[in-house]
Specification:
The structure is a homodimer of 359-residue chains.
Chain A: E1 2-8, E2 11-18, E3 36-42, H1 46-58, E4 63-69, H2 78-90, E5 98-103, H3 105-117, E6 124-128, H4 131-137, E7 142-147, E8 150-157, E9 162-166, H5 175-192, H6 194-208, H7 212-231, H8 247-257, H9 264-281, H10 287-299, H11 311-319, E10 324-325, E11 328-329, E12 331-336, E13 339-343, H12 347-357
Parallel strand pairs in A: 2-9, 3-4, 3-5, 5-6, 6-9
Antiparallel strand pairs in A: 1-2, 7-8, 10-11, 12-13
Binding site for Zn(2+) (chains A, B): 184, 247, 264
Function (chains A, B): Catalyzes the conversion of 3-deoxy-D-arabino-heptulosonate 7-phosphate (DAHP) to dehydroquinate (DHQ).
Pfam family, one (chains A, B): DHQS_C
Chain lengths: 359, 359
């Protein structure tokens, strides 16, 4: 079993990575303030993994409430969040009842936010069942729901007590979902880990074949990278913004096409390509580096051309982003392959980038 | 000007108490990370106090967005909260935009919760305009909205950067609202401040006449008492629960009659009488003490008899309370006049109390 320790302000916790973790409830039991949990999952994940987890907990005397939500980014709304509150209140769940998120990034973000605000905060455990959630959304304590005017606009910083990344759950992940997770994996190479980027170039076929040892090492590396960046900047005042590489463009793509048309990871992949193209225009990246990024994303089954929403529409969508400060949009750009920075783009460069980088 | 300092974990701030504070924007300006605020208020308060505050800020170069909500506890819902998010997003308010709550407890609770979760947290200032908000709800960082199945069920602990208690705003407060605030004032005497309870017995007429010096001293005393209790237990793991004297019964009254039928303070007053009657049944309070409590509440214009909802309905409503631990309802009871404690009530005593204490 691989272990990544996060030591965030007042809330240290561990990420455990291995096969067969879902039913190892000995990992969970010591963390429960009372023998009672509410498992929040969705209609896709529930038939696969809810019963094994529920049975294992019940066999140890834990009272289990299950709340099954509809599946998809389009349901990452207040209305769906309220289904969690309805379930918790109908079952009279208390302040010491622990919420367990069993699912991908949407379930993790919504359950985490529900845990942050139900009765002003209850304990919370993450069991991410997608690659994207295992390497990214379950690490670092960001929780949120979407608002019609912007993605992740309503949320909280709230840390889980434990993250169980069970590699078995990746076996059932559809190819498109797995690829979407690979976008965030590749992102860590591009942020500040050239060694990892080159390791991915050498091991991409084994990754896509979901080889256990390869997956476990890559997930650990991603979590370590994210943990290091988050620990230095828990509330995103500075360097944590690097984790948003590809996300300013990506959120605009998701929002512009309507949530759910593209998967989050797909939009991030196309967004990272736009960031690379912009960085080339600024004179930082050369054509060879661009080509290596494009090749790796393509081999991971990801889109490398952003949809043609039009320059003005992109600007309008990006102006709504949380990473706006005094009217200026912040972009994560690349100084060189494997080294990103927080910068700005002038209107001309941004226009040229969107013209070159979109379909 | 009277000042109460709160030194809560990572977020020290001041409560300032005086006349004429609303337009003293020099108190606010140094706390703004950017010259931009969103004032959240309601349809009752806006015609009285929005323009003076807005003008004073605008005259100093601050960009002001106003969000005016409907007035009343019945609007302390997600739907109304969402009007704040709609307003903030439509105006493209950023992470450094400060939210100012201008109103009573409902506005303070909702604005504080909006500040806690908008873009995962933005700065927040309280300008409470009711007695209840000045002595209670604006102190200590509790924010929340109601859920159809329970009061204040969704919320956060989130501290303001400043509280301005402008005594001028109490001049326009309807008598019923002022009395409701007096319930929380008297509560501090009953929790652990016999000196203050007796001071109130001696000064209740001056209080009800809204004499400036009397008000200022009483508000300062309440804030000091609350600050002391909260500082020892910011997340309500223990002694902070004392602040809920009268509230377990009170929330049941509010919820059982439908939010808005009784004001929160009225329900708390009747709830404190039930707590006193229960304490007498347990052999702690004598008839003379009960009579003094009843007399002071009555002189403050408050109800001392709870509505007859029926014992079973009370139990059902109270079982939904946040102060439930492992199925046991916690009650705040009185060991003697001016000394409360966190305890439990057996079924027989509770039944007898509700039969004796209700209409």
């Amino acid at each position: 079993m691989r272990t990544v320790k996060l030591d965030l302000d007042h809330a240290p916790y561990q990420i455990l990575i291995d096969r067969g973790l879902l039913t190892q409830v000995d990992l969970i039991l010591p963390l429960l303030p009372q023998p009672r949990v509410a498992i929040v999952t969705n209609e896709t994940v529930a038939p696969l993994y809810l019963d094994p987890l529920r049975s294992a907990l019940a066999a140890r005397g834990v009272q289990v409430q299950a709340i099954v939500l509809p599946d998809g980014e389009v349901f990452k709304t207040w209305e769906t969040l309220n289904l969690i509150f309805d379930g918790l209140l109908a079952a009279r769940c208390e302040r010491k009842t622990t919420l367990i998120a069993l699912g991908g990034g949407v379930i993790g973000d919504m359950t985490g936010f529900a845990a942050a605000v139900y009765q002003r905060g209850v304990p919370f455990i993450q069991i991410p069942t997608t690659l994207l959630a295992q390497v990214d959304s379950s690490v670092g304590g960001k929780t949120a729901i979407n608002h019609p005017l912007g993605k992740n606009m309503i949320g909280a910083f709230y840390q889980p007590r434990l993250v169980l990344a069970d590699l078995d759950t990746l076996d059932t992940l559809p190819a498109r979902e797995f690829s979407a997770g690979m976008a965030e994996v590749i992102k860590y190479g591009l942020i500040d880990d050239l060694f990892f980027f080159e390791w991915l170039e050498a091991n991409i076929d084994r990754m896509m074949a979901r080889d256990t040892g390869t997956l476990a090492w890559a997930i650990e590396r991603c979590c370590q990278n994210k943990a290091r960046i988050v620990a230095g900047d828990e509330k995103e005042q500075g360097q944590r913004a690097l984790l948003n590489l590809g996300h300013t463009f990506g959120h605009a793509i998701e929002s512009g096409l309507g949530y759910g048309a593209w998967l989050h990871g797909e939009a991030v992949a196309a967004g990272m390509m736009l960031a690379a193209v912009a960085s080339e225009a600024l004179g930082y990246l050369d054509a060879a580096a661009i080509e290596r990024i494009r090749a790796l994303l393509t081999r991971a089954g990801l889109p490398v051309v952003a949809p043609a929403l039009g320059v003005e529409r992109y600007l309008e969508l990006m102006a709504q982003d949380k990473k706006v400060d005094a009217g200026t949009i912040k972009f994560i750009l690349m100084r060189q392959l494997g080294q990103s920075y927080i910068g700005e783009l002038d209107y001309a460069t941004l226009t040229r980038t969107l013209q070159r980088g979109c379909a």
